[in-house]
Each structure stands twice: as C-alpha cells, then as structure tokens.
Write a structure and sequence with these properties.
Fumarylacetoacetate hydrolase, domain 2, single chain, 19 strands, twelve-stranded mixed beta sheet, 2 domains, five-stranded mixed beta sheet, 7 helices, alpha+beta
C-alpha cells in the first residue's frame, strides 16, 4: 500500500509518505477531513511543497477537531463472550448474544473532542470503578457525506464492572474525561484494509509486559461500511465523525489497569497509539 498519513500537530496539519513529511498549507483540520478530494489534495501537497522536519513526539495532537466519536459493540466473538459473562455475573440476560446475531449492530456515543487524547497523552480510569480495561480498536474516519476517508488506531477505555452491572449504565462506563485515545494520525485511503490486518495490544507496568494479545480483522463480524450505514440512518455529522469498530482483545477477568500503566496499540500500516494511565484530570 502506497501509504499516505495525515497528522494533526501543534503547528498544523502534516502529511507523510515513505518517511517524508510536508506541511499542508491553508487548510483547517475540519476542511481537510471533509474534502471530497482529500487524498488527491494531499498528493498535490507532497508534489508541490518542500519537506519539513519530522514532528517531535510532543507536537502530535489527536487527529480530531470538531468530529464526534461513536463506537460499535459486540462485533467480535471474544467481545460478545466477555460482555455476556459480565451480564450473567450481574444477573443479566442473553442480550449481548442477541445483539451479536441481530441485523442491527450496537452503536453508542463515545466522546466529544475534548474527551479524546492522542498518542503520548494520558487516558484515565474512573475513580468509581474497580475494573478498568483498554479496548484496542480500528477506528474509521468518516466524512460528513458518510464516506470512509481513512483509518486510525482507537482505544475505547471501559469500566467493565459498571458496564456489567446494568446495561443502562453503559454511558457511565464508556463516556468520561480522557476516555478515548485516537492516533497517531489518519491513514488516508479509499481502500478497505486487508482482512489480515492485525491489532496488537501490549500493556506495560513498571517496564514489564503484564498483558499482550493480537487479533485481526478476519474476526470482525460486521463490515465497516455496514456499521457506517447504520450510524448515518436518520443521523447527520456536519464535521464528520469517527467510528470505533469494536474489540477482539479482552484482558482476563482478574486484570485491571493501574495508574502509570502504559498501553501500546499497533495497527500496521496505521501506526502506534501509546498512552499512559492516570486516575485524575490531566
């Protein structure tokens, strides 16, 4: 894949191809996100402007400005099994199993831009939860017209004990400050990612790996285009949106995140999203 990646930085938008970086002139992030000819525009930038130095890690911002973030649930068998276990332990029914086989997917609101952090920044665990986990996910970048313009790496932070206690508590388990990681940038392509694309999660504690696992997109039950179609039914996104596609990696039931843990999610050819964990407002 002739990968073109678009990054949002403190000094503006940067496009990268084959390790070379170029500043995108005279364009806001929201304008670029919704440009009908985004990839062609980025190619013209590469061909007509001079190279710039690669941005340092502390200059990267999450690849979001005015977009909402939504999420899909129960799209992987592993995710279905984990959430059914939560529901059974709380005396719930088999509703997650029914969602997995239903025509209509589970879609829910995840974050406004101010709740989203980028690579190198801190995600947060809730102070009123005992069981907190990351959910590594492929995130779709979708413009206002409902077209998938690219992909990024997503981290859908979740308070599993709150989520499992009652399905009506899902917003509290999912939506709070610093609850979502996106980054490092957008892989801009009109083509679907190959089915063998892998999602790799590593959690480190004091420099030691305490959890590691990998899944791939062959395990994703629903096609990204199907999820986007349901999201846009009777719904509009004037500035576009992100849609997290669900997780196929679930840490064991006796695992919970701790402050200062480091969460590293890699999806080639998008890149690496890395966050550290806090339990207070940044």
């Amino acid at each position: 894949m002739n990968a073109i990646r678009l990054y949002r930085t403190t000094s503006g938008s940067i496009v990268e191809r084959e390790g070379r970086y170029y500043a995108v002139p005279h364009a806001s992030w929201d304008e670029l996100f919704n440009a009908a000819d985004l990839r062609e525009r980025l190619i013209r930038t590469i061909e007509t402007v001079s190279e710039v130095e690669p941005p340092s890690a502390d200059l990267f911002l999450p690849p979001i400005k005015s977009q909402e973030v939504w999420a899909a649930g129960v799209t992987y068998v592993r995710s279905k099994a984990a959430r059914m276990t939560e529901a059974r332990e709380a005396g719930g029914g088999d509703f997650y199993d029914r969602v997995y086989v239903a025509e209509r997917p589970e879609l829910f609101f995840k974050a406004t831009p101010h709740r989203v952090v980028g690579t190198g920044q801190a995600v947060r665990i809730r102070r009123d939860a005992r069981w907190n986990v990351p959910e590594p996910e492929l995130a779709l970048a979708v413009n206002a017209a409902g077209s998938i313009i690219g992909y990024t790496v997503g981290n859908d932070m979740s308070a599993r004990d709150i989520e499992g206690e009652n399905p009506l508590y899902l917003p509290q388990a999912k939506v709070y400050d610093q609850c979502c990681g996106l980054g490092p940038g957008l892989l801009v392509t009109p083509e679907p990612l190959p089915a063998e694309t892998t999602i790799h999660l590593t959690i480190l504690r004091e420099g030691t790996t305490v959890f590691e696992d990998t899944t791939d997109l062959t395990q994703l039950k629903r096609k990204p285009e199907e999820l986007v179609d349901f999201l846009f039914r009777d719904n509009s996104f004037p500035n576009g949106c992100f849609l997290l596609t669900g997780t196929g990696i679930v840490p064991p039931d006796d695992f919970t995140l701790q402050t200062e843990d480091r969460i590293r999610i890699i999806i080639d050819p998008i890149g690496t999203l890395e966050n550290h964990v806090v339990q207070h407002h940044a």
